[in-house]
Amino acid sequence: MKKKWFVGIIGLTMVVSMGAGAYAASNLTEIKAYLNHDIKVKVDGKPVQLQDEQGSVVIPITYKGTTYLPVRAVSNALDVAVAYDSETSSVLLGEKTDGVSIADGFYSMYHTKDPSKTSYKGKDYKDVYFDNTDGSRSSNFALNPKKKYQKLYLQVAAVGKDIEEISVHDSDTDTELLQTTVSIADGLKTIEVDIGGVDQLWVNAGVKDGGGIFIPLTTSYYK
């Protein structure tokens, strides 16, 4: 429902927050508009308060009979990723064309670039998460998409023994976004997760004694 609502509201002209330097551009035209306190916004029938990235309330603007809603506030309400490309002056909504590796800023004690640990089935992935310690355990790590992306494509391989459960949660709301299994027979399995509007993710895998988990960071990515 939210995505359908979003498609409908895209028909309205929207504005997005940009850096101060953008306002010095020569292609801007000064106008006289009005903050419209009468406009109410509902998502799936439920009232929502539009807010900017800092959590401050934002008010719709009316100009010559057209209502303008701030892109970031609407995208947050609908859990749709939004970003601004200053090089092309483009507002980017939803899933991006090009993937962004999760390797940037990734932190874990099992993060390694050791060539003896970064290969799977003859291919060297250079930069991986590889947990092959002893004992049955929870193997977990955090990711920080920071509400910039719509999808996570996580590649996972079970080593030694099947992984009976791997889950991805929204850390802020403790909402489970996906739960699945990864068997040795799956090889390098790609897990697709909807992460629109999510600031931080928590990935957890139940790994058996004698088993391990292999995640190539360079080929796991956000879009």
TrEMBL record:
InterPro entries: Cu_amine_oxidase-like_N. The keyword Signal applies. Residues 1-24 form the signal peptide. Residues 58-101 form the Copper amine oxidase-like N-terminal domain. It comes from the Bacteria. Keywords: Signal. Pfam families: Cu_amine_oxidN1. This is Copper amine oxidase N-terminal domain-containing protein. It comes from Paenibacillus aquistagni. The lineage of its organism: Bacteria, Bacillati, Bacillota, Bacilli, Bacillales.
